[in-house]
Amino acid sequence: MKILVLNGPNLNLLGSREVDLYGSASYADLVAHCRAEGEKAGVDVEVRQTNHEGVLVDWIQESKDVFDAVVLNAAAYTHTSLAIYDAIKAVRARVAEVHLTDPMEREDFRRFSYVALAAERTFSGMGFGSYTAAIRHFAGKDS
């Protein structure tokens, strides 16, 4: 099984960005975490990050027939992007939405997710554990 982990805008700033919300672990730490969790679960994991909406759309489209599932933290695009929603639906991608924090406990505008409308599961509010849960979900190792 091959899982593509996609991260959206500003996640490259983990470790220095709003440390009170996101913690002090870096983006490199997140990448290493996802790869290690994939290895534990017996799946191949590729991790990518971009600050550009169209790049996320391209990667979702390109995932078809290459990856079995997508773990997606669309970050701010979660709440604004019909293009990402449409891409998920267009390629019938198996997607798990992830968030480090719990959007439902944050600002009102973060409580709606276009990604959730197309994703099969959402994992949020567990820090890096949200990614762990999504990877394990697709690997069939839900606890």
Please tell me about this protein's structure.
The chain is α/β, with parallel strands linked by helices. The protein has one domain: Dehydroquinase, class II (Rossmann fold, 3-Layer(aba) Sandwich), CATH 3.40.50. The chain is 38% helix and 18% strand. It contains six helices and five strands; from the N terminus they run βααβαβαβαβα. A five-stranded parallel sheet has the order 2-1-3-4-5, sandwiched between helices. Strand 3 (69-73), helix 4 and strand 4 form a beta-alpha-beta unit. Helix 2 runs parallel beside helix 6 (129-138). The two termini are 19 Å apart.
Layout of secondary structure:
Layout: E1 2-7, H1 19-22, H2 27-41, E2 44-49, H3 53-63, E3 69-73, H4 82-91, E4 95-99, H5 114-118, E5 121-124, H6 129-138
Parallel strand pairs: 1-2, 1-3, 3-4, 4-5
Helix pairs in contact: 2-6, 3-4
